[in-house]
Design brief:
The complex is a heterotrimer of chains A (about 110), B (about 100) and C (about 120). Chain A is mainly α. Chain A has helices spanning about 25-35, 45-60, 65-75, 85-90, 95-100, and strands at about 1-5, 10-15. Chain A has a single domain (about 1-100), classed as Arc Repressor Mutant, subunit A (Orthogonal Bundle). In chain A, a hairpin with a 2-residue loop joins strand 1 (about 1-5) and strand 2 (about 10-15). In chain A, helix 1 crosses helix 5. By secondary structure, chain B is an alpha/beta fold. Chain B contains 4 helices and 5 strands. The longest helix of chain B has 10 residues, at about 80-90. Chain B has a 5-stranded parallel sheet. Chain C has helices at about 20-35, 70, 85-90, 105-115; strands spanning about 10-15, 40-45, 80-85, 105, 120. The chains are: A mainly alpha (about 110), B alpha/beta (about 100), C alpha/beta (about 120). Chains in contact: A-C, B-C. The interface between B and C is medium-sized, with 26 and 25 residues.
Chain lengths: ~110, ~100, ~120
Amino acid sequence: MGTIEVSGKSYETDEEGYLVDLAQWNEEVGAYLATTESVEMTDQHWEVINFLRDYYNEFQIAPAVRVLTKAIGKKLGPDKGTSQYLYDLFPYGPAKQACKIAGLPKPTGCV
Amino acid sequence: MLHIVNKSPLERNALDACLRVAQGGALLLTEDAVYAATRGNAAAEKITAAMAGMKVYVLGPDLDARGMTDRLLDGVTTVDYGGFVDLVTEYPTNQSWL
Amino acid sequence: MSEGTIKKFMFVNRKAPYGTIYALESPEVVLISAAFDQDVSLVFMDDGVFQLKKGQQTKGIENKNFSPTYRALDGYDIEKLYVEQESLDARGLTEDDLLVDVTVMTREEMGKLMETMDVVLSF
């Protein structure tokens, strides 16, 4: 368990730095979590983050990377639905890093 | 006496045991036991029969969680958590059939 | 992920949601097995058919509603969902009450299908 401070408010995280209560998430918190992962956020990054949050709202799980890649390709175009594209944005694993920034739990089956 | 059952009637015999012994009073169905008071469930006739001699209640939030709210048997009363507490205080004794 | 033998896995779900932890754990294990590219079938029988009931609203019991997860299975290429007819009948449910597309089969057909599996896990 840990705590992060963003704009004077504190948020609880688990031992790996994932936000405990995803309802507390906002873009500012996302931006802060990105700095802990050394990810410099661009519009392309936010597009993936927003996609992940929509996916979670609909299905109540964080997708595995293979599923994320396929779903992104369907939604945002085939040039973005490749693991190369997603790894360029999130070098330490799109599912793992992007989920953390999006305030979601770690994807099931992701070690 | 207030009888409280929280097990599915098609998985455990808690409801059967309760209805075999109960002498009137009230029956409150919670958790998986709420399925017993839904139309089409194989245990529904037991609840209908029991209503001749006792008042039957279900816990609303448990019914909602299971998506069964619109299938509640006629004559069964829905209570919320506050109503649950009221029932417990209304009857001098209560028994949870685990 | 290394190339391995593909085995036929069947997950048998027999418990109602929320009353016990089984129904929550099952989809977790199913999703993990999907990550290893196995041939996965899901069976819903007895009170397990209630896991697929439409319209679950868990706000009041402060539990996570995990039923939408079943709609994500398609994206994981898990498309073999089987429901036992007799179990639906005993609970006043029909295929229309379920939140995903399933194949409804009789008890006997279910038994035969089970015999063709390499691994059967019960929840």
